[in-house]
């Protein structure tokens, strides 16, 4: 599996959104990571459907939405015309994950679940691993960009890769939080094949995003 890089829009200069999206359009094989926060599941508030409807008209990349929200069910319906490729919700935010995944799969090409750093892999039933297209391992506490990478997430990726391998599953393993050119190699070796990076990409000197993306790759 080749590695997908998903730059997180949370770290973009929002006053330059269109230009920045066009800049990312010059780079191939990216996803665009969209952190939707409701100021309830996490102590931060970002953007919703009206903004993402505009993003979709400019970006050529697959839209990868990470819902840090208390009521993901509401967003499944509400975002159905945004053109998302992947819809990831937090395991900690749902009571009926099987139903939710079915709903997502009826409307979006890819369904993902995300685990906060404190949620062990053992909390997830096998049935769920079999249903999802993507598993997002958080390597920081969700809510903000620019935080420090938690190295213990590497072991979680290794253990998840084993679950995937032993059960002949092929969900993507995505990691999100504090990823840079130094820790990316360890994550890829551990089995991750989809890496989110916000402040590292958008903090590139002279807006040379490709050089930072290539360092991760
Ligand atoms: C944090 C978000 C991340 C964030 C990553 O809750 O889910 O996607 O944008 O930002 P960096 O790469 O700066 O840690
Ligand atoms: Zn995210």
Automatic annotation (TrEMBL):
Name of the top EC class for this enzyme: isomerase
Cofactor(s) this protein requires: Zn(2+); Mn(2+); Co(2+); Fe(2+)
SUPFAM superfamilies on file: Ribulose-phoshate binding barrel
GO CC annotation, single: cytoplasm
Active site: 35 (proton acceptor), 176 (proton donor)
The enzyme's E.C. designation: 5.1.3.1
Reaction equations catalysed: D-ribulose 5-phosphate = D-xylulose 5-phosphate
CDD domains hit by this protein: RPE
Superkingdom, taxonomy of origin: Bacteria
Keyword presence, Membrane: no
GO process annotations (BP): carbohydrate metabolic process; pentose-phosphate shunt
Binding site for substrate: 8, 66, 143-146, 178, 198-199
Keywords from the UniProt entry: Carbohydrate metabolism, Cobalt, Isomerase, Manganese, Metal-binding, Zinc
Record Pfam families: Ribul_P_3_epim (PF00834)
MF annotations from Gene Ontology: D-ribulose-phosphate 3-epimerase activity; metal ion binding
Residues that, per the record, bind a divalent metal cation: 33, 35, 66, 176
Family: Belongs to the ribulose-phosphate 3-epimerase family.
PANTHER family (alphabetical): RIBULOSE-5-PHOSPHATE-3-EPIMERASE
Name of this protein: Ribulose-phosphate 3-epimerase
Lineage, opening ranks: Bacteria, Pseudomonadati, Bdellovibrionota, Bacteriovoracia, Bacteriovoracales
Gene: rpe
